[in-house]
Amino acid sequence: MDNNTLLSQTTSSESMMPYSRVPAGFVSYRPVLVEDIDIISEIESNSYPEDEKASLETLRYRCINAGEMFLVATEHGGSENEIIGYICGTCVNENETLTAETMGSKHEPDGAILCVHSVCVKSNKRRRGVGGKLLETYLMYLKARNNDRKRDNQSELKSVRLLCKKHMIPFYQNGGFTLLGESEVTHGKDAWFDCEFTLLD
Ligand SMILES: CC(C)(COP(=O)(O)OP(=O)(O)OC[C@H]1O[C@@H](n2cnc3c(N)ncnc32)[C@H](O)[C@@H]1OP(=O)(O)O)[C@@H](O)C(=O)NCCC(=O)NCCS
């Protein structure tokens, strides 16, 4: 390809489109800290219906007991790093099915299945690609963690599971999840769908 072709391709409005997906600020990712929980609880409360949101106590439990599975996205703005999103989950043993309890607050540190409970982006930061990138970063981290655990002869995570409502299925499929089908979990008026990301075959 000559330079002119390359130039015309990289400056066409079509090829510039992906850049509109890049968040305005600089987003970075880090493990959760206990002192984040009040802010995270506020974002959770503003993002989920009353009967679906995790309480402050549950979020604190997840942070303290399953902190390794709790990733926070921050955006650098002004002099501070603002928390703009997070993903958290807890692990269960392989033979457990996803029930209200396994999607709840208990955590088996060596469990083979990671149940994701919240994937959340602050409302004024949505639809800029932050959620998709957060999910991608989380899965990359889990793969790297598996490699470390394998090296240290520790059990690895086999899969990541989550329940979502119908309209969110494409979001997770785009992130590499497979739709397993409608879940037996009944909660509220909407059906729940079981999605899986396989880490180990
Ligand atoms: C779900 C959530 C994390 C998505 O975060 P986000 O930063 O807006 O996601 P992205 O910008 O990366 O979205 C990428 C694509 O996913 C899809 N998508 C995102 N949010 C969606 C929604 N609420 N409904 C349907 N599709 C959605 C769209 O196709 C979107 O692309 P588009 O903006 O070009 O249309 C965010 O809306 C949120 O925190 N919601 C409240 C909590 C929640 O419901 N979490 C999911 C639990 S299953």
Can you describe what's shown?
The relative contact order is 0.13. Helices cover 31% and strands 26% of the residues. Mean pLDDT is 86; it is low at 1-18. The chain has 201 residues and is of the alpha+beta class. Helix 3 (37-47) crosses helix 4. It has a 7-stranded mixed β-sheet with strand order 1-2-3-4-5-7-6, with helices on both faces. The protein has a single domain, classed as Aminopeptidase (3-Layer(aba) Sandwich). The protein is built from 6 helices and 7 strands; from the N terminus they run H-H-E-H-H-E-E-E-H-E-H-E-E. Bound molecules: coenzyme A (COA). Residues 47-48, 119-121, 126-132, 164, 167-168, 170-171 line the site of coenzyme A. Coenzyme A binds at residues 47-48, 119-121, 126-132, 164, 167-168, 170-171. Pfam families: Acetyltransf_7 (PF13508). This is N-acetyltransferase domain-containing protein. GO terms for molecular function: N-acetyltransferase activity. InterPro entries: Acyl_CoA_acyltransferase (IPR016181), GNAT_dom (IPR000182), SNAT-like (IPR051635).
